[in-house]
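Hi team,

Filling in the usual template for the complex we talked about on Friday. All components are listed, including any nucleic acid strands or ligand strings, so the model treats them as one assembly.

SUBMITTER: L.P.
PURPOSE: interface mapping
COMPONENTS: two
RESIDUES: 426
SEQUENCES:
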Amino acid sequence: MQKMQDESGILLTTTETTAGLLRELVAHLRQNRTQLREEWARRITEARLLTAMSKDEVFAEATSVYDNYVEALETGTFEALQAYSRNLSERIIPRGVQTDEVVGIVLLLRDVLARSLFARYHADFQKLNRILDAYEPAANRIAITVAVGFVQERERTIREQQEAIRELSTPVLQVRERLLILPIIGVIDPQRARQLTEQLLRGIRTNRARVVVIDITGVAAMDSNVANHLVLTVEASRLLGATVIVTGLSPEIAQTLVNIGVDLTKMNTVGDLQGGIEEAERLLGYKVLPVEKAEKVE
Amino acid sequence: MEVPILKQGSYLIGSVQSALTDADLLQLRDSLVQKVGQYRSLGVIVDVTALDVMDSFASRTLSDISHMIRLRGAEMVIVGIQPEVAFTMVQLGLTLEGVATALDLEEGLSLLDLTTKKRGRDGGALQR
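RESULT (copied from the run log):
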């Protein structure tokens, strides 16, 4: 590195254009394609990267990465490489390939190619410097493109999963005709609270519910915002003609709610989910009896 | 647009068809309070399924109508409030305190059946 900077004076006087050098470089890489990608695949295995994939898979991927790499060097455009790296990430992320592995293999390729350039031009030091000058920025840019593509793909996956979790986190379930339960588990943030209300109100309408049991046994803590939101949800449900029963308030939540002075007079609370469902059945006019007794009644 | 008021047995049904101006609301109030006596109705249903918004005047007027109807000796139920409307209303503090509500017309009718029977006013004893 130091040496190349020392020789920068010579570089300025060169008549060869970067494009010309890159062409030469690409021709070299094409010529030694088989040997170089084998070398690369070997070093990937040596470094114990991509252990989630079989040797053949690594070699197949190495081949297409190599070709895309050379093509990006040749054309100077990165769209195809970007698309490829996204596609590759999509395939390897589910198999547990880590960011450091992807960055690692791209840097390995960069090193393998640089070595081959050293080997080829070691006789002509100035030429080597000029070639490296053309090669390094392009190679770095390629490494960045692939790494960023991978990370972006991962972020996208994470976002999708978060979305899915959020969707799944507020199920509105019908347990009897006209009776819905809404078990809430985990932390309620404002966004989730809003989504919860939306789904509940929609559920009341589609299931024509008359009673809803909201079970918050799985909620560890609740602040005044969320508590007020809960009160709003209860009132909005009433406007749709449904009675809401809240069950499973933990001792901590009960204390917090009283301490922060949320008006809970409108909330119908029952100790646990079983009690809540029993109360709801009573409101709906159901009565659950053991079979024997029920037969006697009939 | 004026709200049509339909007579269905011993109930009156005010079926809102489009967005209501303040004048329409007052007109609805006057005719419901008048007709509930005229037809000796036991219950009144106001169906607001068609409303996309419910402002403070509308909800106060509906709440007023409900109390007036009760003073005239009948029960009133508001039905068909949309989920989005319901949540916006409670956010604005318009909770229709003391007013009966139901999901839709059918639910409203069965609720009226329940409440009017409780008050012993279904007139069964006098029917021949």
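MY TAKE: Residues 120-128 of chain B have pLDDT under 50 and may be disordered. Residues 22-38 of chain B form the longest helix (17 residues).

Thanks, L.
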